[in-house]
Structures are given as structure tokens and as C-alpha cells.
Amino acid sequence: MIQENLAFVKNKIHDACQESKRKETEITLIAVSKTKPLSMLEAAYQCGCRDFGENKVQELLEKEEALPKDIRWHMIGHLQRNKVKYIIGKTTMIHSVDSVRLAQEISKEAGKKAITVSILIEVNIGSEESKYGVPPEQAEELVREISQLPYLKIEGFMAVAPYTEDAESNRQYFERLRDLSVDIKSKNIDNVYMNVLSMGMSGDYAVAIQEGATMVRVGTGIFGERDYQI
Ligand SMILES: *Cc1c(COP(=O)(O)O)cnc(C)c1O
Question: Is 230 a residue whose pLDDT tops 70?
Fold first, then answer.
């Protein structure tokens, strides 16, 4: 099942790239494996997946420990400051930085290990009350403050668009995040790269790619529906 799903997703990424005249090599497919057992991650690994996304620290650490070391782990979920110390050095990128306090903690722990941590600033692009992320209007100010901290590299933005059955309705949000990223990049802030746009999930990754996503986070589309009862 995973093999067929991956083939389907990759094909759709291919088509979205063609439609928008982009190169497939610009897009990283992150297999979002939260709640899924190791056997399913191993199957995806066998099919060539090397980027996996998790949203809980404990689960990410357990899977990281058990699976091959050439996997790049992406922390995509809300991160509590007291758990930062456990994941520093274990992740390739932290997608969910939305406050100076969290960034300070990551910077402090990265400093202890003398490593630089790649982060994305999470933007609440649909301005939904229930969502994490900085409001778009405050994104530049947050980027400027965090850019002052040592041991961090601001690679770009991440957003979780509103849940919808109609991917087209999220196009406006993806477009807005891309515009915001282009705008901030043009200000040449020290230590701010803005080459990564992590946006698009199972329901809307094709539209996100058309609007400039460089990372898409696909869970259900690869592993099937999640069962939160287990
Ligand atoms: C769960 C999750 C995804 C994947 O969602 P699907 O709809 O299953 O593809 C992507 N991004 C974040 C932040 C998530 O928590």
C-alpha cells in the first residue's frame, strides 16, 4: 500500500512541478509518520524516503533511535521549551518555531552542543484562533528578533493552512506566505535565508507546490488515515 501511495504522491508532485515550471529537485517530500508504527516507516524507507516528519518529541526520539541513521527527522509539531534539550542534534530542521522564548531555548541548547540548528518560523497564515504560529503581520518582527540569536539559522517559513475539502481555497494562503517570504528575503537580514517554504499537506500539496512550496508534509496520503485511539 505504501509503495502505491508514494508512487501516487510523487506523480502528483511531478505534475504540479510541470504545471508551474518548477524542478522536482526543488521539492522535498516529508513523510509525516506520526502515530504510525515502525514497520510502516521501514516500508517507506525501503521505497526511498529519507525525510520523515513527527510532531511529538518522545515519538520522534524513539523512532530516531530505532531506524537507520541516514534519515532526516523534521520536528513539525508544537514544541514545549522543556523538551527542546532532548531533540537538539537529532533533527535536521525544526519547523514550528513561533516565539522568541522557544528560539532562545533552542539557541541555548544548540550552544551547549556547539551546533547550528536549522529552524523555520511557523506562521498562522489563516489567522485561525486554534492554530499555533505567529500572525503574518508580526512575522517580520519575530524573524528580526530571532535572527539575533546565536546557533540558529532561519531557513524559511512553515504554515499549516486551514482544513478544507477544497484545496483551491487554500491557494490564497500559500500565495500570501510566499509573498511574505520573498519580501523578508529581499531585506537581507543577517542570518535569515528564506529559501525554504514548508507548506502543503495531503489535501493540498499540489496547490502548495504551484505557489512555491519547497517542502510538502504528507501523512495520510502516504500512510493512510491515522487512528488516534491506539
Ligand atoms: C499531521 C501533520 C501533517 C500531515 O497531515 P496529512 O493531512 O495527514 O497529510 C502535516 N503537517 C503537520 C504540522 C502535521 O501535524
Answer: no
